[in-house]
Each structure stands twice: as C-alpha cells, then as structure tokens.
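Sequence in, structure out.
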Amino acid sequence: MAQILAPTSQWQMRITKSSTTASPMTAKMWSSLLLKQNKRGPTKSSAKFRVLAVKSEDYTINRLEGLLNLDLTPFTDRIIAEYIWIGGSGVDVRSKSRTISKPVEHPSELPKWNYDGSSTGQAPGEDSEVILYPQAIFKDPFRGGNNILVICDAYTPQGEPIPTNKRARAAEIFANQKVIDEVPWYGIEQEYTLLQTDVKWPLGWPVGGYPGPQGPYYCGAGADKSFGRDISDAHYKACLYAGINISGTNGEVMPGQWEYQVGPSVGIEAGDHIWASRYILERITEQAGVVLTLDPKPIEGDWNGAGCHTNYSTKSMREEGGFEVIKKAILNLSLRHTDHISAYGEGNERRLTGKHETASINTFSWGVANRGCSIRVGRETEKQGKGYLEDRRPASNMDPYVVTSLLAETTLLWEPTLEAEALAAQKLALNV
C-alpha cells in the first residue's frame, strides 16, 4: 500500500539533544565529521550529542521535508496562491503558483493571470496567451497557513471563453432566475481507479494477472481486499481541510477503485468543488507514487467501470408533491437522452453496456431502487413523495460544469413540444 508524504530514501539525521542556538548542519560539515571519525577510529557514545544516519545511494542529507513544512505565517503577510485550470483534454488539471501580498477572502481580490495555451493544447503558438480568471478559493492542504488553491476558468485576451472553458456557460445557466429560484442541489459520486506507476495496472493487482472475482472488495477491509485506503483517507482529510464539501468515501466494486462524494452543493459550486477535489487527489497520488485514472472502463472484461453518478433535486422536488415534479423531469431527460450522453464523458460507451450496474447507452430507462437504469429514484423518495433523482449515466471523467448545468437546463428551462411529451410519457409508462 502506498505511503503518503513519505520522505525520500536519503540521509536522515537525528540529534538527541536539541539546541535553540545550533545552526543547521551542512553537507560539508557532515563530510568533515565523517572524515574525522575515520581518522580517530570508532567513537564512543556521547550523552550530549549523537547522530544516527541512514545512508542512501546518493549520499545526501534530506532537509526537504523541513522546508516543505515551514509555516510562513509568523514571518510574512504574503501568501502563495496556486492557480488551477482545466487543460486542453478537458480532463487534465494544470496549475502554477504566484505570490500574493496579503491573505484574501474572495476571488475578486486576486489578479487575473495568463499562461501559455500552446503548451496545453488550448491556443496556437503564434497567439498563445490565455487569461486565467480566479473563480473560487480553497485552503491549500499542502502548504497550509493562509496559502490557497484558486479554481480558475480561461479566456482569450479579448475576454471570450476559450472552447474548453465549460464553466462560463454553466455560470450563465445557473444565473437564470428560474434556476436560482429552484435552488438546484447536487450530490456527485466521483469514482476513480489507482494504477501502479510503471505498469499502469490497478493497485493491488498482480502484475500481468488478475485478482479474485468481484464481490469482497466493495467497502471491504483487509490487505487482500482494500488497496489504496491511505490515499483515500489522505484525500478525505485534505478536502475537509480545504473547505470542499466532501460528504463521504468508500472502496468500490473493482479492487483498486475508490469513490468519494461531494455535496449537497448548490449550482456552480458543485463543479468548483469537484474540480478542486480532483486536483487535490492528483497531488496526493503524485506524492504517493501512484497513478490516478478517471477512465470510465480502465480494465476491459468482467469488471465494473467508473462513473460519476449525479444526484439532483430542485426546491419543487424537495417539497410536498415533489415526486410528480421528479417524473416530469425524468420525462424531459428521456427526450434529451442523446444530448446528455454526448456530454457525459469520453469513452462512456465502453462503460454503459447494460452490465455491471449500468443501463445501455442507447436506451433511456428509469426505475425505483434500480441501479441498472439510466435514472434511479430512491425508495425513500418514493415513500415520502418527494426528494431527488440519481442520474447514473455520467462517466468518471465527465466535466461537472457540463453535467450539472445540463441537468438544470433540461429540467428547468427546456420545454418539449406537446406531441413529444405525450409520446415520451407513453414510452416511460411502458418502461416502468
């Protein structure tokens, strides 16, 4: 199992008696000490000063951990802001750091910045400048103190959203008064798979081989069932520290696969929190020496894929009589099934096969407590006559800005023709 934040295998030094006036020992001083010891022969134990060292291949002394853990707060008002944006693939996260003169509480206090879009597949080389607009702030769990993570979206120098900026369109939808009045809630279940670094094979799997069949791994415990729990737990705590609305985590059906849940979040906040949580997960797996993949079907065959099930409700759905509102929303979703599928993640056709707790990508369906449907409604929602629906179609690599805003648009702003509505209602009645 990977070790989080483990120091590199370099020289490690412990001094049994601390001194507030002692200066750091340099590599030159350490070499001199070793030379003197060799000349004098074996040294006697000293109660005042003793050095214990573990030798490594490169004969260096590791001081990185101490520097990385430095708390700058007592010494300067300046902070480090890590600007984060989505790269050209629409799935990759990029970031770079800058110094800000003082702590900030709102993204409007931060300056815009730019980056080389030709290096991220987002701009041509002859006109490569892309502008970052700060949109959301989170506490930085890696640097601590007043340092922050900044979720940004990207624009041309003329102020137009670049094609991969899906947040801008989502913000327009969530700014619509009809949507605002319905206070849309989202609970997003992000599944992911951990891979061994060199072979790109799931964590805990024998290289070139397979573990036992699925069954004991889901929410399982034990060295032969749970692979990567330290990463999941580190991510959980880091998200809580950052201020991300993470609500839980669990081991998934396929070994080496995990899930965490974010929400309930309102409107555009859901996308900001998912992207921030993905960035933190990328950084943790980087430190652990494990590869993170959001591929919706990382292993072909009789293994579960990875989704990003999205739970959704509006004010009207949560009030008395809400179940009828949910049914109307499902009807609208059925009529725009193709539009949603095309926006729900690359490679999703490899996952939505009608097997492994999925519905077929080509067929829209819904049911109560049925995880083999496109849309699932919980037993409690049926019993209470109000609640939420779960869209089980989004892939693990979906863009949360796209999925959340599309759900709001289809259920709150889009109106089907009467003929289409009647035909869809008839089909859904037969389906149920």
